[in-house]
Design a protein that fits this description.
CATH architecture: Alpha-Beta Barrel
Shape: globular
CATH topology: TIM Barrel
Helix content: 25-40%
Structural class: alpha/beta
Distance between the termini: 28 Å
Order of helices and strands: HEHEHEHEHHEHEHEEEEEEHHHH
Largest sheet: 12 strands, mixed
Number of helices: 12
CATH class: Alpha Beta
Bound molecules: S-adenosylmethionine, iron/sulfur cluster
Oligomer: single chain
Strand order of the largest sheet: 7-8-9-6-5-4-3-2-1-10-11-12
Length: 373
């Protein structure tokens, strides 16, 4: 058992039930934020090589991905997810790498769909995918109990999209994946576009127009500012197109109006076109950070817990899991780690920019495909 884990177990709160939590009790982190959302990376592998995530020059044939034995099994993931639900999580998101590459992922979905919150409610179960395998798998995922899906799509122009995914994957195949998700009832389908100034920003208006034409208000398009995750994507601040500029460009299509936010912890600021009500979201992680509401934890493919997308350090849950730790010990570790959390990287990055000259990017950081987006 790792020393970090033992230290956390030693600091545990009084145990109140067999999972280590009083039902409905909220463990707040150091900044008063509850734990609500667990993102689970089910594979560190991907069939795309998006330059902002897994640049081809680095993630080539020589890159060592995790061996199968290092990856959490479905049973291990489900056990941890159950304990996170007991700790207050109401939402689970499967991600990666490309989650649909994980063999029999629908079986995992069915295991997670059977979990309940301490008050007996269902968990919101969703998945983020590049869409490449969605046409084939959407119906089975829905049958297994998946509620919703988010599809990443950076361009509607086939040439631009092939260059963005860097493996020559055709845009039409992703659109067929979205068609299949809608037909299966994985609603609402959200589509994420990462905007890189000078690379795909010319696609903001064409993509929004094309999706409205094809799907009306059944699809919610969200624009994500290019982030400095990991250490390999060559991030430069001048390649970030602020969300306010995205909004300005959307006004070329028609008038837009703000919507009320869905929930605290929501990452996107929601807008809609005034004429047909089609919704768009702006995820402004760089220019308007939302750390103050961040209720997300991330579980890597090999069972490390990360408390921030930009963390340098993960906490090993796989060691104790495979070393015979009880549910109470694991639950107390999760609880203890969350209670010590003070991460707010994006807010600090923003204040550095104001202070100018401070570079927080020199600290080592994990890659997004490993801990999940
Ligand atoms: N492979 C799946 C996909 O692309 O949807 C799931 C994993 S991917 C890491 C999750 C999300 O992170 C995607 O929507 C992707 O566009 C986004 N993402 C990856 N790198 C990013 C970056 N540097 N800045 C902003 N978003 C990024
Ligand atoms: Fe793969 Fe998703 Fe990363 Fe693109 S963003 S390389 S599809 S994991
Ligand atoms: Fe949450 Fe970290 Fe992102 Fe802030 S920087 S919103 S704490 S994941």
């Amino acid at each position: 058992m790792s020393s970090t884990f033992i230290r956390l177990v030693d600091q545990r709160l009084p145990t109140r039930n067999s999972s280590g939590f009083a039902p409905g009790a909220d463990r707040l982190d150091m900044l008063g934020r509850p734990l609500r959302d667990l993102r689970i990376s089910v594979t560190d592998r991907c069939n795309f090589r998006c330059s902002y995530c897994m640049p081809k020059e680095i993630f080539d044939d020589r890159h060592a991905f995790l061996p199968h034995s290092a990856m959490l099994t479905f049973e291990e993931i489900t056990r941890l997810a159950r304990l996170f639900a007991a700790a207050g999580c109401t939402k689970l998101r499967l991600t990666g790498g490309e989650p649909l590459l994980r063999k029999d992922v629908d079986v995992l979905v069915s295991m997670l769909a059977a979990l309940r919150t301490p008050t007996g409610g269902r968990l919101d179960l969703t998945l983020t995918t590049n869409g490449s395998l969605l046409a084939r798998k959407a119906a089975a995922l829905k049958r297994a109990g998946l509620d919703r899906v988010t599809v990443s799509l950076d361009a509607i122009d086939d040439g631009v999209f092939r260059a963005m995914n860097d493996v020559g994957f055709a845009v039409e195949s992703v659109l067929e994946g979205i068609d299949a998700a809608l037909a299966a009832g994985l609603l609402p389908v959200k589509v994420n576009m990462v905007v890189k100034r000078g690379t795909d920003d010319g696609q903001i208006v064409p993509l929004a127009r094309a999706l409205r034409l094809r799907y009306g208000d059944a699809v919610v398009l969200r624009f994500i500012e290019f982030m400095d995750v990991g250490a390999t994507n060559g991030w430069r601040s001048d390649e970030v197109l602020p969300s306010d500029d995205v909004l300005q460009r959307l006004r070329e299509i028609g008038p837009v109006e703000p919507m009320t936010q869905n929930s605290s912890g929501e990452t996107a600021r929601r807008w809609r076109f005034s004429d047909d009500g089609a919704e768009v979201g702006l995820i402004s992680s760089v220019t308007q950070p939302f750390c103050g509401n961040c209720n997300r934890a991330r579980l890597s493919t090999d069972g490390q817990l990360y408390l921030c997308l930009f963390a340098s350090l993960g906490y090993d849950l796989r060691g104790p899991l495979r070393g015979g730790a009880s549910d109470v010990e694991l639950a107390n570790a999760i609880n203890g780690l969350w209670g010590q959390r003070a991460d707010r990287y994006s807010e600090l990055r923003a204040s550095d920019a104001i202070a100018a000259g401070v570079d927080r990017r020199s600290a080592p950081r994990v890659e997004m495909h490993y801990i999940g987006g």
